[in-house]
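Hi team,

Filling in the usual template for the complex we talked about on Friday. All components are listed, including any nucleic acid strands or ligand strings, so the model treats them as one assembly.

SUBMITTER: L.P.
PURPOSE: interface mapping
COMPONENTS: four
RESIDUES: 678
SEQUENCES:
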Amino acid sequence: MLSTRQLLILQVIIDEFIQTAQPIGSRAISKKDEITFSPATIRNEMADLEDLGFLEKTHSSSGRIPSEKGYRYYVDHLLMPIDLSPRDEQTISGVFNQGMVEFEQVIQNSVNVLSELTNYTSIILGPEVYATTLKQIQIIHLSKTTAVAILVTNTGHVEHRSFSIPKEINPLDLEKLVNILNERLVGVPIIQLPKRLQIELTSIIDHYVKDVATAFKYLKGALLDQQPNNLYVGGITNMLLQPEFSDVAKIHSLYSVIEQEETMANILRSQDQGIHISIGQENKMTEMQDCSLITATYTLKGQQIGTIALLGPKRMEYSRVISLLDRLSNDMTKTFKNW
Amino acid sequence: MLSTRQLLILQVIIDEFIQTAQPIGSRAISKKDEITFSPATIRNEMADLEDLGFLEKTHSSSGRIPSEKGYRYYVDHLLMPIDLSPRDEQTISGVFNQGMVEFEQVIQNSVNVLSELTNYTSIILGPEVYATTLKQIQIIHLSKTTAVAILVTNTGHVEHRSFSIPKEINPLDLEKLVNILNERLVGVPIIQLPKRLQIELTSIIDHYVKDVATAFKYLKGALLDQQPNNLYVGGITNMLLQPEFSDVAKIHSLYSVIEQEETMANILRSQDQGIHISIGQENKMTEMQDCSLITATYTLKGQQIGTIALLGPKRMEYSRVISLLDRLSNDMTKTFKNW
DNA sequence: ATTAGCACTCGAAAGAGTTGAGTGCTAACA
DNA sequence: TGTTAGCACTCAACTCTTTCGAGTGCTAAT
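RESULT (copied from the run log):
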């Protein structure tokens, strides 16, 4: 459908625009080494590319900038995977070779390295609760009337929640109860915990061990209203460096979406396995429609347990960013597998 | 030193400027109910106030804006404490009446309510380590080779850290070790932990229980490199709403300071007991010299254990903000005391 | 001591002119 | 027939001027 020459021109324009954020004119294109024809020819081709919807003008006599359709075509057909630069390679290796043994540490480091290397905003959705299972429940008494319940998952994640112990609860009952819970719930996926606690155990405990029923009622409250916040964001201020966000209003609306953890988590959660790119209007959130979002997933035992993403202007360095995300999601997957 | 009339004019100008962020002219001042004299008189007084350094002009024929000296005088002499508005009152009561039992919850809620009510950025330094003591150490095995060490403080704070268990370590030794540690270290202030671990125990363990020495060597590593991050920030994007920060460069430099948790923590840590106000250049960080920082401290057992702060433009609503901080720090102190 | 009056200042907004990087179109060329 | 040189045209960005008005300081009158 597009001639080789048109593809070449489209590629040059997008590559150049990604670097400069400025409209590209025919003369500038003709100066490129790989371009052997004159500005006039280029102008004709550009006019055609514009008619086809791949390019846009900012005003009637301006150079061209890529349209969203242009980016989409570029990403789908023109992008060739590049190897990571030695520097990127080294930085990432450095992070993953330091022998991290904690989930949050891996994620936190990944968020940091991503935003530092790219100057975009990186967002990582932590391991999904349905892939992690309960390792142990512990109760630790802080005082006569307060205690903290600690929940450890197989991924090394620790959730805790303090609660007050009503007078009518016997500390021994509480201990007994925790033992029962551990017996029955260890290995259960976190996501099933509320249900399991609610239905299965309530009846069992009512039957077998009447005396801990009251204790259970209180402990359940403490265990249930966990809402694990597993969204990690890095390099938010990087957006301020992008010329497309020199407008405070834009920044503000974008930040307000990122701040809505629930919304962002849902967006990342709904991503398919592998690498996925949303350009501009392809994003559902209107506030993100000046941006591109590139996501990759990482897995544990073949099951997708989380998503890493980069948010930047539409003129992102797609090929580099894709390589980075690919490398990072693999490294994460590998790291988790080794545990 | 200043006449009543001058004080009145200074007060009107600052009050007005706090609302509008626009220079105030003599005519506008004369329209105020409490002002009974003519613009010409006001102009004379304003010229005097400017000579004394309390007011500034943005250009030679503009109205006046308060200088930093002006704000300082206002804060020191003109501010009268006001009662919280019913709405503020209600919002804060709502937060503190919900029976929170967890340290982090209290702080997180306080940060949120502060930034929501004020539209400034709120920063809270969590309870200082020297005021919190160790409640318990726990080791939970995740797999044959990995475990997570959990550290609970008397404030209900939980720190955790995964580590891998080298082959040469006997799990039983590890357990024995944890028991020993708990026996000896419970009640020790967190800040002394590294020292205690390092010096006192190393020798004791070497003496008494040779077999756990190796285990200790590894566990120590896991316990020592905790750096509790106890800085909570809310409403960072609020700064974008202030007209004095319509410039992206300013925002960026300000954000970069706030992001340096260590720096911010040190600033908050060095605050005196009670409410303290730093206006503009009074702030040490150059990036914050367009801002005012108002801090209040909260206590546990009479000892100052943390700081809450509001960061905003120099034309902050000082009286309201002070009332809010005062109320909030009291509520926090009270809440912690009740536990 | 206060104020009315007036000349003066200066930023902000609006308009005019200039520049230059870009275009589209036409006609000549290989 | 595809390519290119040439040229008129467009428009944002910049600069320069003008106008406007909200403000001032100063002086003289009350």
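MY TAKE: The first strand of chain B starts at residue 55 and ends at 57. Residues 23, 25-27, 40, 43-44, 46-47, 57, 59-63 of chain B lie near DNA strand D (CB under 10 Å from a C1').

Thanks, L.
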